[in-house]
From TrEMBL, chains A, B, C:
Matches recorded under CDD domains: RecJ_OBF2_like (cd04487), S1_RecJ_like (cd04473)
Chain residue ranges for the region called Disordered: 1-24
Domain S1 motif span(s) in chain numbering: 40-100
Domain of life: Archaea
InterPro entries per UniProt: DDH_dom, DHH_sf, NA-bd_OB-fold, NA-bd_OB_tRNA, S1_domain
Record's keyword annotation contains Hydrolase: yes
Keyword Cytoplasm attached: no
Recorded GO MF terms: exonuclease activity; nucleic acid binding
Swiss-Prot/TrEMBL keywords: Exonuclease, Hydrolase, Nuclease
Pfam families on file: DHH, S1, tRNA_anti-codon
Lineage: Archaea, Methanobacteriati, Methanobacteriota, Stenosarchaea group, Halobacteria
Matches recorded under SMART domains: S1
Protein name: RecJ-like exonuclease
Amino acid sequence: MTADNAGDSGGGSAPDSEGDSRPIVYDLAPNCTSEDVEAGANYHAVVNGVVEYGIFVDVSDEVSGLVHESNLDRSYEVGDRLTVTLEEVKENGDIAFDVFRESTYQTVVVDHEPDLTPIAGLEAGDSVHVEGQVAQIKQTGGPTLFRIADETGIVSAAAFREAGVRAFPAVELDDVVRVGGDVESHDGSVQIEVDSLTRLDGDAAAETRERLDAAFEDRATPADADPLVEWPAFEKLRDDLRDVARLLRRTVLEGRPIRVRHHADGDGMCASVPVQLALENFIESVHDDADASRHLIKRLPSKAPFYEMEDVTRDLNFALEGRARHGQRLPLLLMLDNGSTEEDVPAYENLAHYDMPIAVVDHHHPDPEAVEDLLDAHVNPYLYDEDYRITTGMMCVELARMIDPDLTDELRHVPAVAGLADRSKADAMEEFISLAEAEGYDRERLLDVGEALDYAAHWLRYNDGQSLVNDVLNVGCDDEERHEELVEFLATRAERDVEQQMDAAASHLEHRRLESGAHLYTADLDEWAHRFTYPAPGKTTGKLHDRKVKEHGEPVITIGYGPDFAVLRSDGVRLDIPRMVEELNEEVGGGGVSGGGHLVVGSIKFVKGMREEVIDSLVEKMADAELDEDLSSQAVVDTEI
Amino acid sequence: MTADNAGDSGGGSAPDSEGDSRPIVYDLAPNCTSEDVEAGANYHAVVNGVVEYGIFVDVSDEVSGLVHESNLDRSYEVGDRLTVTLEEVKENGDIAFDVFRESTYQTVVVDHEPDLTPIAGLEAGDSVHVEGQVAQIKQTGGPTLFRIADETGIVSAAAFREAGVRAFPAVELDDVVRVGGDVESHDGSVQIEVDSLTRLDGDAAAETRERLDAAFEDRATPADADPLVEWPAFEKLRDDLRDVARLLRRTVLEGRPIRVRHHADGDGMCASVPVQLALENFIESVHDDADASRHLIKRLPSKAPFYEMEDVTRDLNFALEGRARHGQRLPLLLMLDNGSTEEDVPAYENLAHYDMPIAVVDHHHPDPEAVEDLLDAHVNPYLYDEDYRITTGMMCVELARMIDPDLTDELRHVPAVAGLADRSKADAMEEFISLAEAEGYDRERLLDVGEALDYAAHWLRYNDGQSLVNDVLNVGCDDEERHEELVEFLATRAERDVEQQMDAAASHLEHRRLESGAHLYTADLDEWAHRFTYPAPGKTTGKLHDRKVKEHGEPVITIGYGPDFAVLRSDGVRLDIPRMVEELNEEVGGGGVSGGGHLVVGSIKFVKGMREEVIDSLVEKMADAELDEDLSSQAVVDTEI
Amino acid sequence: MTADNAGDSGGGSAPDSEGDSRPIVYDLAPNCTSEDVEAGANYHAVVNGVVEYGIFVDVSDEVSGLVHESNLDRSYEVGDRLTVTLEEVKENGDIAFDVFRESTYQTVVVDHEPDLTPIAGLEAGDSVHVEGQVAQIKQTGGPTLFRIADETGIVSAAAFREAGVRAFPAVELDDVVRVGGDVESHDGSVQIEVDSLTRLDGDAAAETRERLDAAFEDRATPADADPLVEWPAFEKLRDDLRDVARLLRRTVLEGRPIRVRHHADGDGMCASVPVQLALENFIESVHDDADASRHLIKRLPSKAPFYEMEDVTRDLNFALEGRARHGQRLPLLLMLDNGSTEEDVPAYENLAHYDMPIAVVDHHHPDPEAVEDLLDAHVNPYLYDEDYRITTGMMCVELARMIDPDLTDELRHVPAVAGLADRSKADAMEEFISLAEAEGYDRERLLDVGEALDYAAHWLRYNDGQSLVNDVLNVGCDDEERHEELVEFLATRAERDVEQQMDAAASHLEHRRLESGAHLYTADLDEWAHRFTYPAPGKTTGKLHDRKVKEHGEPVITIGYGPDFAVLRSDGVRLDIPRMVEELNEEVGGGGVSGGGHLVVGSIKFVKGMREEVIDSLVEKMADAELDEDLSSQAVVDTEI
């Protein structure tokens, strides 16, 4: 303790001393040590011995010293109280006091400032004090468990008041606290059995918070990893990607859970699986609890490339349950390969009220004005005049490496899988493929992995299928051969199912030649394709389209429709699907037309009874579309249909 | 022990003494105390000291006394056995015996009647005996855990025979037992480590059961809470509501689980959420286990306003699993906002065989003759010549307050939400709304809360979404602002989705004017509305109907139909939908017509191929319907479509 | 230890002694006992006493002896080192050594061979060594838990290295290990706290593995139970059934999990419920952990009578999660009442790469060439020139009795239920029914049980509904009356629902008389039956067909069709549905026809738009079909529709 910080609520409780010019006399707590005293300061003391050459006084149980008889102007007996000034701490530790004789002063009570132990350094058997931020407050049938995060790690502190009754009810999530207690071994992890738990307030809290903040910020710094390939277009968004990495690392350091929502297609899984693995590794390095990663990160596939109400509702309820039942902070929401569009805004607006930070890495055409203010971090190639060709999988492999650079060797083939799955025509594609080839993946196998991911995603439905997906993608998979066999199995089955769908549908395609010279194909998929199976209408349309492009070359437009939807694919034609939807909505009254997507690929919904009008109208628009050889549509799996 | 109850199996084991005229000599267990003896009774004794003025005899380790030499007619040595009669217990506790000289007698063995400790008073470290009813028998991998309920609480008693092997296999659920053992602290709760566990039989059991019963009945008494509003119509059903409250409280006191099934709409949630919260609070006050409420109460939404086979099957299987895996009693089934109709009878009949009590609070038109005998409690306004205008939510707010009166402040706005959600035209509505307004809810917000509940229920599907729903309804929610934002978010989204549905469907409504003057609107919702989204056909029909009523005023009938169903709404027309269904079934052969609902609102199912005939026939019937300005239909969300 | 096995890695570590002709001198570990020494062998020794008649030497802490002075040619002092030859172990245990004088030798280090304790004999408090095979390695937040299986049982061994860190990382699943440690009581079971854990390699491993293998094989021997009825046709497949029983018992003994997939119909449940119960009983007798059966066996219903991709994907992911999260071996897959057909091959091929053994008991028409090589065991009556009349339920009752013969009394009625549910016309049916009648089940009730199983399966969907199903089938159900009431409830409801479906559909059946004289009925079930309810189209077609057969007698063909499927039933007509499907596929271009089933019952899928062509073509084929009075179709519930 020093005179400077004596007023800190962490150290002592001072009267409001602003403008108080009276000298201060400190009243030390019994356990104060020599660290809590300093020369020149005044203390309340009690006589514990009278000798010829003076009196010995205690200012705490630990701190005593001599007032030399030359400083005394009266006699004292043991037990007498007086105020003293500390004159000097001698080299041998002896302390010399003088009597403090002023009768007007203010008393400041001083607690002993304990030595703080960093959480990473806790060992069973120690009696310690730690200081940190409350990351979780879980009420058990017995004690209340506080998870405390400091600069070095996170630990549980068990406080018992009464069975099932909340201990220290005034302490809340995110408070900065000091915890004193004994470190015990508990199910193999260490845990603090709490003796004291104080919420820091005012300056003490601010100071500690600042210290923690600086440390979190420091440890949150993303790893510096050279990009897998040199790619100028990609470099533009690297800084924003680092911001996401920093946010995620910091989220882990503070003990907040993370909920990942990703588009359930090849690119979406190439994006989310590496990030999940990197976060799991980082969580395990921060927490000493083997189950922490299971409790703190959850990856969930979404069928649509935007945040559907059903998912929002479930996520929100899950988050609230986690807080109610486990005393967790509400999770950070990480959207991968979806989340950039206006469709997502209402959900974000709501989550904002819930202290749920949101980060998005997406390559779907964004509505930056709409979403930007609501996001804590946002990466999207369109924000840098790039486009969907930089796939989310490519971005997230770099993101994963910024979180855990040791993953690099496991991830070299992933950007190529992502790019091929999303039919990216990025300049870097060949380099990514070479990179994968160097790891033993030829182009055919990379395509197969993408197909297998897509097929697995279809059958897993709302299940994350973590172990299976890791084996398919060969990330976090420990058996190369098993990976190969699994991919072959799934890809072969997927191809067989696609073949069956093609056999049924191809002969029913209706063809017309537009004036522009473009080939237009339409197919009623409800009539001519198997329903409720793989591939679904979106992918079926894509496969039919690809065949026709192969047959004729560009320009080709394909429309696959069902009772109340249509999927559009085009190559070499300048479409603007969002505008078309807008026009259709005006032209076809009571059609209930909605939808959109990218410019040249998308899906449209309408009411069943207006199908003919909508499709006819759509075909007319196609006839008016200009040709443009550079435009080709991305994988149709980017629709929810 | 007294001579009177010496034969109780709880205290001693008597030979069949009927007609046995021989005097009784009690053989006391070594731990019998002075409480187990009384003047005039005879005891087996042993000499433990010989003095000048007589001999000292022990009748148990704890009970000794003097046989005065004046009563002796021979000499005794230490260790000699004899029979004695207790003459007197003196004020200082000294006991005087006489020798019992008859040679013909019957011996009755007497166990010491231990002092019983009330469960609520157990403290770790005590050695105790408790007496209660077995509420659960859970076999763990180690000991067998018995949950014992007495007049004061419920506690776990762990009995160990062999790892994973059932201890005291003769003891069953509901048995009355006496448990002896040491109280230990276990995960923060107290638990008895069982030394002895005896099933009481015969009179002892009956007596204890009677005592427990009286205590349960007493503690089960519902709280006396003044009604939120004065409402004579409501007062008629208050007594029945108290019966339900009593049954539920008693169910908790006996440790039986409760499974709540409720209609998944606004009123159903306004009914079930407060009751769930009240029961959770009550459970926590009875059990010392923080997890108890999670294990003992489960709320589940049902899409239909009756007990569907899928739900019955699952509930029954769940109940049986709970018994098989956790040794729980089968749960009480509480049906809220559904359960009063004939459709529910077969399920109830089956559950009756399963020792699953059933309580129903509903305001759908009941079949009292059909269900009454099968229910343990039934509240329905139609049973008192009232009708659906007393909504289930209104009733259940009072029910919740009878279970936990401390909830009152949280619930004042709920009847208004329920009433508006179900379009109740009850006289008390304005008072309920004023009550809510006093809490800061204006009419608009109350409607929004109802809409938000409905919307959340739609997307949560079979999930109870507890935390989310509590926030929406602002019951058990600790953050007013979050509640408001959440309601706004959900209500706005709901309105947007309704708007989209209206845009699509409204222009396709077919209108005709019936001879009666009523407007009849029909719409093919499969053709002209979005499918598989919010709002579903039932609510869509309702919204279309409301618009037309607003436009024309009454009388209006609206029929929204799909491939194999039709939804009916009417205002100002005297319909009798159940009768119509009956007639249609006769008139339209092979139509498979079924359904029903209330008089003036309902849904009808038929086979797809007969739709035209059914709808035509329905329209004819509408043409014949009389007008009646007082009749208006309740929210159509009361159908499963 | 003997000279022979001194080189075993289990006992000592020998230099490569091939071709080394130098004599061996053993260097015994301090804890070696007299069991580790033998006459004629040489040892390193140290002098511990010098007496007149010689010197005492220690060859280990436990083994000492005398070198008689007659054998000494120089003097020794205490502490001197020398090499000795063991001459003789006298009757009183005294050992006589001679000095071993050769200066050229090789030293072999010898560890003490500890006494091994059989796992079944472990008792808390003992210090033991056990030897066995690693069945599971589960990393907890604290220690690593190894499940060790030896000849007598399975036990957990907890090894702690650091919290959450894998102990003995070199040890893998299936390794043979020796574990030393203290037996402690843990949650009521015993558990070894590991001091040492060594992987056996080379000969030691081979020897132990051989010993375990012989013991597993011995304990895996199926019980000898007399068949419930004498039935020559059945006897042909008994040996194969014993192979399945042996495989399953052995799987349990080795601690591998079992995943049962069964057709979700009456026969499939009559097959799987008894086998599940038998395996649970056997697991409990092998493991000392009450939860073991919950972790080690899972039964799952499948809607289709083959292994659908959705199920494969989920099973595989579940298996991988079990390994990743619980360190379990991948499960054995047991297919009951499905799994014999070519449709299953791709899934099996994939699982083969995953070390997942597969066993199949099925009575659907098999493709033995296709599946045989992929299965570890396969029983199907067609493999012995029998047919579907031997139902899977009949086979599995015998299988269950081979696993746990004590179940016999519970299962006597099950073959009759299975046979009636699958309309088996087996010769043994009457005997099975008599057997059931002797247990109090009349024919009507047996039919009801089958109907109730089917109904419950419908509503339980993907849930195994174990407790409910056990009660319905009265296997593992402890309350006869409850079983009866439950069956009545479900069967009555099922009949009512069937009746409603018949009422709607029957009048819409189209009839024509084929030239062959057969009656052909067709019905558009999408138009004329209720959809998405019980009974589904497959069963609806069957019920319609049965009525017509009853009405006309044979021959009758019934086709129930929907938008993109048709279900076929026939009696007295020689159909070959698989061939028809092949022909249709050629004749109807772009029809996407697939499907099949048995010869005379099956289902066909096609694209909606080609329905008319497919049905017309099908009817033509029916017209050409020959009559054959012996042919009748099995329950249509054997289709997934």
